[in-house]
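[job 4417] fold queue: 2 targets
>>> target A
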Amino acid sequence: MNRKLFRSIREYKKVSILTPLFVVLEVLMEVLIPLQMANIIDIGIQDGNLPYIIRTGLILVVLAMLALAFGALAGKLGAEAGAGYAKNLRHDIFYKIQDFSFKNIDHFSTSSLVTRMTTDITNVQMAYMMSIRLLARAPIMIVLSLVMTLTISQTIALLLLCTIPVLGGVLIFIARKAHPHFIRVFDEYDVLNNVVQENVNAARVVKAYVREDYEIEKFHGISKVVFDLFTRAEKIVAWNSPTMQFVIYAVVLSMVLIGGRDIVLGTMETGELTSVIVYALQILSSLMMVSFVYVMIMIAEASSDRIVEVLDEVPEMQNADNAVSNVLDGTIDFENVDFSYSGEGGNLSLKNISLHIKSGETVGIIGGTGSAKSTLVQLIPRLYDVTAGSVKVGGRDVREYSLEALRDQVSMVLQKNVLFTGTIAENIRWGDENTTDEEVERVCRLAQADTFIREFPAGYNTMIVQGGNNVSGGQKQRLCIARALLKKPKILILDDSTSAVDTRTDALIRKAFREEIPETTKIIIAQRVSSVEDADKIIVMENGEINGIGTSEELLKTNAIYREVYESQVKGGADSE
């Protein structure tokens, strides 16, 4: 497994070291047991010495009890070490993801990250737990059993010594042949999880369009790919057990032939042959353990590479040295900004944007689909970094701020904002977890959410199910606006976040903004002209460029795009009445 992952063992180093130590003690007890059994047969039974049989039998019981105790301790500590290691790995990956920018997250799919934190870490956990137990046990068992066999019969010991590398080579060959299939199967797991996630998230759409059969067929297709890959790998690994059994029986038969001849010749006792057979079985079973662990390690190697890929991902957003932690005000400046999602050299989504927004202004942004309205505002809280030029907030380049300080003063409300499982009050408190109930209710009144919240039987203690699917789109948007307001930001960005509310509610929300947060800079992206008509300035976007800036009256005179949208909505609406 990748050595980088061993850093995650941390506080479980002690139990990781104690586990193989107890395994060694268990093996020592198990190696001594056949020797005592041979003594009972060759000395006690053959000579009819009952006291010797009882005495040696008691020693056997003690050895067996010690082996049981040491084995149980090794199992307990090994399980703790493996589970603790997996816990730390999940912790490290999850914390790493929290530092990812949108660009970093775009590099991995959500389903892939989930697979890495579940299936891949489970594979690494199992391989690690087996390694510290079985890989410590097998080599010591092989060596000690060989030594004990050598003291009884050099011929049989030589037979075993020749068998070990041959069998080991065959088992390693089988594991290596299966390895590529295991690597591929985890990539397909990502696709499978993505299909399931997409289907569950879009369950309402699937049912609305009666596409269940199509989704089932799609799922069966990728599921069959995973099945085929696993089947190919398991068919190869399946040779492991019969090969092992064949060798075990062949070796035992050979030992019986050699031992039987030696017993007839008087150079070996019956009990010694019995103990030698036990030692041989211990050696061969240890080899089988090694092959099993080797297969697990090969699987875990593929998983560990995928985990390391996440841990090695360098977050695109880094705090500058001596990062500024205080945002002066809500002034925003774009200076010759170019931006491409692909980075330098890619197709530009924003081109040569220069813009000045005063602190406390209300700014509307309007434009067609794909005109880069959302892209523009995402540069303000530094969800992405500019490709060229600079974005300034409070007179400073956003890259000079610590990310926490900047984003704490820039609240964004998206059209498809997310609510989390918990009460309405708990969701609102994402804006400020230490706020009072009165303040929660105040921001909900500003967002026009208080009325519908009180209509629920449990009021602010109403539980929100995963994703907020038990509230309407408009209710969800208003709750998200309230959550953003609770932060008391210097800049508030509404990215088409009132699209699901009626025009009257939209107007009341904007009125509350003007009266309650006049010093906050407000940027409103909207498809409805009425949502931005009374803004201090309106920005018209087209193809990633600013096509016009001005008040509604000014743009009606100077900007053809705005005039066309205005007339189609305002005059068209009037005509239809």
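>>> target B
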Amino acid sequence: MDARLRVLTTYKLLNNARYFRLRLCIEGIATGIAAGVVISAFRLALIHAGGLRQSLQNYVFSGGVTPAAIALWCAALLAIAVILVWLKKAEPQAAGSGIPQVKGAIAGVFKLRWLRILLVKFAACTVAVGSGLSLGRAGPSIQMGAVTGQGLSRFLARPRVEERYLLSGGAAAGLAAVFNAPLAGVIFVLEELNHNFSGLLLFPALSASLAATLVSRIILGRDTVFDFSGLPLMQFADYWAIPAAGVICGVLGLWFNAGLLNSGRLYKLGFLKNAYLSNFVLLAVTAAVGFYLPEALGGGDDLLTDITLNSYPLTVLLLFLAAKVVLTLLAFGSGLPGGAFIPTLVTGGLVGSVIAAVFTQAGLLGAAYKANIIIISMAAFFTASVRTPITATVLVMEMTGSFLHLLPLALASLAAFATTELWRAKPLYGELLLRLLQNTKTLEANHAEQERNIIELTVDTGSAADGRLVREISWPRHTLLVDVKRGDEELIPEGNTRLHSGDTLYILGYATEIRELEKLVGKEV
């Protein structure tokens, strides 16, 4: 489509907001249904892959841990290592969790090959997570949901700005379907992927998230990821433990986050530079740990449930925590397809179990509150890593079914967020996106070789654009303000139009100018 015609089509959509919102809602439902089917199939594949790994292990070592059995098991691990290398080379954009790639695509700095990513991500994550690596399923589900939305957009020949809304809706659907958490899917897209709470974005995200959750519940049931029903409500006299746990998780989460961001350096050393050997070593170490601590493999859902329902000595809890952290850092640093959502939440829960054990043994807190501390530590630790306190609160609430614990979860998340703010910590996925951009040639220096697209931004209170006339603002050279929405009111931007916080701006510009525009309107990056 010609660039001028594409911009004109987009402008007409923005000028007919009610029709556009209705269209986005309908397309969001279609995206959610498709993503719900894909993610449900993905969850089933992971279940069967994990069962197959356990059956194979039992068969190989049925006669004991003999040299022949070890050799056969190593051969199987080497075969898996080769398959993972091949899949990673088949589609580099499917590497890692996939969330930075989705953030880049929504921002307009990446062009995703949606079908290749969908197929490779599905297959590679099934192999990687099914083989026991400490990787999560949420990040891959978010990317697969997002590219499902992109595929629908390409099929319907939608303009680029509309495609980004469907990318966001698909991402929300992916998270909602994998965790049975529709609200968390919406909040994550608004808080982390877009940093924008616009009405146009809310429609596809909410409709896709609800549709995907409905599909996944029809296929896989209504069960929450973790069953913590029947928890006692904490007395106000014991509320001191909530911010205390939040601060502790904030500090430990900072270190964990630094480990995730720097673990890839290990694979640049010596023989680990060879992808086949590094994958084999990773699989071998994971398998060795799995012989003694099988609960630490995979995402770790069973491990968290186990420590919540049963009592373990503090030394054993510390052993579980150390094993989970080491396996997660090794797996995430490899760059293999797989996420860090569940491993981060499980690590936070393990930290919470240690905190609860220490508080209980010191006589500071009743043993009945162990599960409460575990839950609030999950939210706090996740907040420290990803820097999304609202998402963390809602996600843990939906995953555990503990809807009466909204206030403690929010308080712990806030304490962890404040702790990370003091250290000026970098959010995990934002930093990964910056590194990805530095290592790719996505952004060309010559503007003539790029396409200009419509960028949606919201003016923040106190930003450089807040309260100023359009003509007074130093806009980037190649941008054009084409539309301003203030609630239900639509303004035709002129030099004397005064912008206010909460205004939604639609700006025609290049991808290279997005960061400058975000700083101008006060958006965090």
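[job 4417] complete. Note on B: The beta strands are 453-458, 480-486, 489-491, 504-509.
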